[in-house]
Amino acid sequence: MKKTLVFIMGLLVLASCEGELTDAVDAAQKPGTVKIKGYSSPHAVQFRFNGEPVIINQQSSYANNIETTLQFVLDRGERDLLGIYDNETGNELAKYDITYDNIDDYKELYFFNLPDIFLETYAVKPTVNIGRVGFVFIFPNLGEFSGSGLETVKGVLKRENGTVLAQFENIGKENFSELKVYSFFSATAPVYLELYKPGTTEPYAGTAPIRVQLIQTVGANMIVLQEKIENGNLVVKGDIDIADYLN
User: Which PROSITE patterns match (predicted)?
Assistant: First the structure.
């Protein structure tokens, strides 16, 4: 009986050691999954994972709507590099340093690549009823030239005569604002977006009014705001409409 008991105890100790060893090995690795969804036009882009091109539908470069999922295993202390490159110029558009500890920050990556602008956001063209005008805004370089530390600004959209068409409480850097819709009134008359500190009527930078002249288009208008310096003065432009590139 004593031998049998010792044998069983020995098996239990061995199983316990194997379990602890397996747990230690498992804890030293972590599965990684990165879902990528984006759009690029007119240039194609290429994803590179640790320097190697990512193949999507048997292609090493891709344009227009792009969607794929990367799956891999990360060892503790390991770094994996994911880069997005312009396939025509070879320029690096974005780089992500993925580690065992930060993999949860990269479960989903969205981007939008157009000439002279790269947005790390996912754009979906909103539905706007016939005869109506809809606006959404994003302000990716907010503070680049103004020095403003704000993460969002308030926008008030007006007609040339000062009539308010819509108000946007939070126009930010990373995501498009909420959709605001009004009735179309002219194919030629401009509209103006005035930009303020959130919750105020003070310009978000400096003391002079900041107004962005826009062309209204029936349907969805997805405007990228950009700070620029012209003749030594801060201006904000809204010349890029993402909706022009989406079906």
Answer: PROKAR_LIPOPROTEIN
Q: Could you say which of 3.30.70, 1.20.1270, 2.160.20, 2.60.40 is the CATH number of the domain covering 29-119?
A: 2.60.40
pTM above 0.70, yes or no: yes
pLDDT on residue 144: 95
**How far does Cα 56 stand from its chain's mean position?**
21
Of 49-58, 87-96, 107-116, 221-230, the poorest mean pLDDT is in 107-116
Task: List the structure tokens of 243.
Answer: 């909706």
Q: What is the pLDDT of residues 149-187, one digit of tens each?
A: 999 999 999 999 999 999 999 999 989 999 999 999 998
Give the DSSP per-residue string, 18-84: HHHHHHHHHHTEEEEEEEEEEEEEEEEEEEEETTEEPPBTTBSSEEEEEEEEEEEEEETT-EEEEEE
Report how far apart, in Å, the C-alpha atoms of 93 and of each of 41, 82, 83, 84, 166 are. Answer: 14, 11, 8, 5, 34
Q: Which residues contact 92 (CB under 8 A, 6 or more apart)?
A: 83, 84, 85
